[in-house]
Write a structure and sequence with these properties.
The longest helix is centred in the last third of the chain and has 22 residues. Helix 1 packs across helix 7, helix 3 crosses helix 4 and helix 4 packs across helix 5. By secondary structure, this protein is α/β, with parallel strands linked by helices. It starts with a strand and ends with a helix. The protein has two domains: about 160 residues, HUPs (Rossmann fold), CATH 3.40.50; about 140 residues, Argininosuccinate synthetase, chain A, domain 2, CATH 3.90.1260. About 40% of the residues are buried. The chain has a five-stranded parallel sheet, with helices on both faces. It has a five-stranded antiparallel sheet with strand order 10-9-8-13-14, covered by helices on one side. The protein has a four-stranded antiparallel sheet with strand order 6-7-12-11, with no helix packed on it.
Length: about 400
């Protein structure tokens, strides 16, 4: 039999795919990549995969790696897809693919299967990661296969298939939306959210954040420490990357921080509506931005901001393991060598206010910037500076005036 590794969640879709792959003659090894998904019993997920017929089943805890090696470098870029979305799902997919491909090498598998549909972005992220990391591996995407879609045109057929094959499922009524969660964020889409007239923030039952209306009536101050652009502490306590995200999720969540509702342009060409919450990462983005304002040179900061949309597209589209991304990551590590310091944020009912910031590498000089007399900036110097800057404008104006 062809040996295959399956990115397995334990849910309906991947449970059906696991059994279906067995029916097609594959030896299947199930891999559950733990990125902080809510799950009551991870052992039950392994047991279920084995009962279905998996040759092996394992859980790989990659939460720390997700925060340290994937989310934090994207944070340093201040990358947001279409200026809004923090890409919590997009960031996670290349790590899932990498982990599954590592298991494939261990078990001698020649194929990598996943449950992403042919309409979404995740299929691109899995496929492109596999192409970059192991160009010889076969990628099996059942939802892109006509025979699979004919066998399972809807949820009812999948449930019937599970009953026939003794696969335990939770056959519940259709939810008004679907959700995907990891330690970075929760995304909500589909169902009633496909109607743009529906208020998504009111429809969704958020899992990480309270409504700003229900947030405390008193503000809370949180201090976030950075070293070379990397978050290292919260309220003076050194923490691991995962612990920083988890701590800020709790703090930001209780103040209603980090909710968005957007219509985005998928890589496959369609527009889709999504509602997202990412309290911890939202706080980190704002804190780092405030620290960059005092530690990054103007031209370097502006260059980073011009390139940030490029990075967001690479992440969102699935080109994490491209040479372009590798080069851009080298740039951001170099640019943030001196982005070190502390930022105090005041949180109040969904709002983030700056309460203070400091850095041993601060480029802010009060003696130069002061509007009071006696500062070290000589305003007379501006006369020559502006004469030089305005020279091409004056030349153009004189020439063009002659031809009007």
């Amino acid at each position: 039999m062809a040996r295959c590794v399956l990115a397995y969640s334990g849910g309906l879709d991947t449970s059906v795919i696991l059994r279906w792959l067995l029916d097609q003659g594959h030896e299947v090894h199930a891999v559950y990549v733990d990125l902080g998904q809510p799950c009551e019993d991870r052992q039950a997920i392994l047991d279920k995969a084995r009962r279905i017929g998996a040759a092996s089943a394992r859980i790989v805890d990659a939460q720390e790696e997700l925060c340290r090696d994937f989310a934090f470098p994207v944070l340093m870029w201040q990358a947001r897809y279409e200026s809004v979305y923090l890409m919590g799902t997009s960031i996670a997919r290349p790590l899932i693919a990498k982990t599954c491909l590592q298991v494939a090498k261990e078990v001698g598998a020649t194929a990598f299967a996943h449950g992403a549909t042919g309409k979404g972005n995740d299929q691109c992220r899995f496929q492109l990661a596999a192409d970059a990391l192991d160009p010889d591996i076969q990628v099996i995407a059942p939802w892109r296969l006509e025979q699979f879609r004919q066998a399972f045109p809807g949820r009812s057929e999948m449930i019937a298939y599970c009953e026939k094959n003794g696969i335990p499922v939770k056959a519940t009524a259709a939810k008004p939306y679907s959700s995907d969660e990891n330690c970075l964020h929760i995304s909500y889409e589909a169902g009633k959210l496909e109607d743009l007239e529906v208020n998504g923030v009111e429809l969704v039952e958020f899992g990480m954040t309270v409504s700003p209306r229900e947030a405390p009536d008193e503000p809370e101050v949180v201090t976030i420490g950075f070293e070379a652009g990397v978050p290292v502490s919260v309220n003076g306590q050194p923490l691991s990357p995962l612990s920083i995200v988890q701590t800020l999720n709790r703090i930001g969540g209780r103040h209603g921080i980090g909710r968005i509702d957007m219509v985005e342009n998928r890589f496959v060409g369609m527009k889709s509506r999504g509602v997202y919450e990412a309290p911890g990462m939202t706080l980190l983005y704002e804190a780092l931005r405030l620290l960059e304002q005092i530690t990054l040179d103007r031209d370097l900061l502006h260059l980073r901001d011009r390139l940030a949309p490029e990075v967001a597209e690479l992440v969102y589209y699935g080109f994490w393991y491209s040479e372009k991304m590798e080069a851009l990551m080298a740039f951001i590590r170099r640019s943030h060598r001196y982005v070190t310091g502390q930022v105090r944020l005041k949180l109040y009912k969904g709002n983030i206010l700056v309460d203070g910031r400091s850095s041993p590498y601060s480029l802010y000089d009060a003696g130069i910037a002061t509007m009071e007399g006696g500062g070290s900036y000589n305003q007379t110097d501006a006369e020559g500076f502006l004469r030089i800057q305005g020279l091409p404008l004056r030349v153009q104006a004189r020439v063009y005036r002659k031809h009007r």
